[in-house]
Design goal:
It is built from 13 helices and 4 strands. The chain is of the alpha+beta class. The mean pLDDT is 95.
Length: 254
């Protein structure tokens, strides 16, 4: 197995960091790697916010599902799905007048544009994560940035065509984090199919049950019930879905 594959194999989320922050050179290498990520039409439909203000970090630690380690992370990068830059550029470039001459209305960003921008932003984020890992710098994705859209829009001064899709905390892992067991993944047979999608059956679900980490004591009788209660139906997911509806309403003016 080559060095890159070893890196991917060994990577795990890191939520506790040494006080040592990445150097300026290491920070620049992480950001440069993100900017070299694949992108739809070479448009780079994302922006990156580097969160340095401790007050903002403290606030995000609360609004992102109460995760105190966010406030302690030495480097925090937020990846934004961003069509505002291009839409503003279109207007600057006289596209509105061009559309009028052609007898067509100026098209505003819609759902498909948002999906492309989200893809661009997440590809950039993962490229940054792997670059950091190659330098011994751990990372943790914060998907909860999708929650509390109105709060984050005001806190970060986000215009209408910018959507915070992911945040990543970076830092050198503590010894305990290095020794922490790596989470398992499901078998290829449950995830990878040939040519056409395959719905899973009872034997597959039995395998999922075996391959899911041990459950915490709860009223759940099996893995499916536990994941439903802890990951699919809790309050934070209800808020995340409400927030995404608000984002879509704001993006599409619907």
């Amino acid at each position: 197995m080559n060095e890159t594959l070893n890196l991917i194999e060994s990577r795990k989320s890191v939520r506790s960091y040494l006080h040592q922050a990445p150097s300026r050179e290491e920070r620049d290498a992480i950001v440069h790697a993100a900017l070299r990520a694949p992108t739809a039409g070479n448009m780079m439909l994302y922006s990156i916010l580097e969160i340095e203000d401790q007050a903002i970090k403290d606030r995000l630690a609360v609004t992102c599902d109460h995760q105190p380690f966010i406030a302690k992370a030495p480097l925090v990068l937020m990846f934004l799905a961003d069509y505002q830059r291009w839409f503003d550029f279109f207007k600057h470039s006289g596209v509105e007048e061009l559309a009028q001459r052609m007898g067509t209305p100026l098209r505003r960003p819609q759902e498909g544009d948002l999906m492309l921008a989200i893809s661009d932003a997440l590809i950039a984020a993962q490229t940054a994560v792997l670059a950091a890992e190659s330098m011994g710098i751990g990372s943790c994705y914060i998907g909860d940035i999708i929650e509390n859209y109105e709060v984050h829009r005001e806190l970060l001064q986000l215009p209408e065509y910018v959507f915070p899709i992911g945040m990543v905390c970076f830092g050198f892992p503590t010894e305990n984090q290095k020794l922490r067991a790596q989470p398992s993944r499901y078998s290829e047979s449950l995830i990878v199919f040939k040519d056409r999608y395959r719905r899973l059956g009872p034997d597959d679900f039995a395998r999922m049950e075996r391959e899911t980490p041990a459950r915490e004591a709860s009223e759940a009788a099996n893995t499916g019930q536990q994941v439903y209660l802890r990951k699919y139906a809790p309050d934070f997911m209800l808020e995340m879905n409400r927030s995404v509806r608000e984002i879509l309403k704001n993006w599409t003016h619907s």
